[in-house]
Amino acid sequence: MVTEVSKVMEANTLANRRFYEEVVNQQKWAAFDEVIGTHYVSHGFPVQLSPDREGLKRSIRGLHTAFPDGNLTIDQMIVEENTIATRLTFRGTQTGEFEGIAPTGKKFTVTTLDMTRYEGGKLVEQWGGLGHQCLLQQLGITFSMK
After folding, report:
1. Residue span of the structural domain in which 111 resides
2. What are the phi and psi torsion angles at 88 (to 5°)?
3. 90 with 66: CB under 8 angstroms?
4. What is the distance between the alpha carbons of residues 70 and 72, in angstroms, rounded to a whole number?
5. Are 76 and 52 in contact (CB under 8 A)?
6. Alpha-carbon distance values, 128 to 91, 102, 146 (Å)
7. Per-residue b or e along 102-128, where b marks 16 or more CB atoms closer than 10 Å to that residue's CB
8. CB–CB of 124/16 below 8 Å?
């Protein structure tokens, strides 16, 4: 027997998968409007990005500029009604500028965990993002604590 909750979970799981595979990986902007809610909020963007839909678009475009071969794979999803935890792996090569860092030509693999909340089958809230420290280390960027 299919319950209303299981229908909601199925719709949210599909939207979550489409977000990473179609929007982030393929930059399908029609899919962006289909899976991202109008009042989307990010709790993990760097300060130079607004935490809304436009900031999300800029973030995705920035990733593709810095890492044209970059690709996210979904390793695991844990779904609890309107909230989804997604473990992801991002692989690529830095051939463009990334947050002011000149291209290094280095390949990287970064794992990350995102928490997302859905309303009506659309992503409305997100926590997490790339593991910046791990990514920067793999690109050969080091920081000293003085």
Report:
1. 4-138
2. -130, 155
3. no
4. 7
5. no
6. 17, 24, 28
7. eeeeeebebebebebbbeebbbbbbeb
8. no
Residue 131: which CATH number?
3.10.450.50
In a domain? residue 115: yes
Residue 96 neighbours by CB distance under 10 Å:
16
pLDDT tens for residues 98-145? 988 999 999 999 999 999 999 999 999 999 877 778 888 999 887 666
72 lies in a domain?
yes
When divided into structural domains, the chain yields a total of: 1
CB-neighbour burial class of residue 32 (10 A; exposed 0-12, middle 13-18, buried 19+) = buried
Residue 1's pLDDT band, with cuts at 50, 70 and 90, is low
Against a cut of 0.85, is the pTM above it? yes
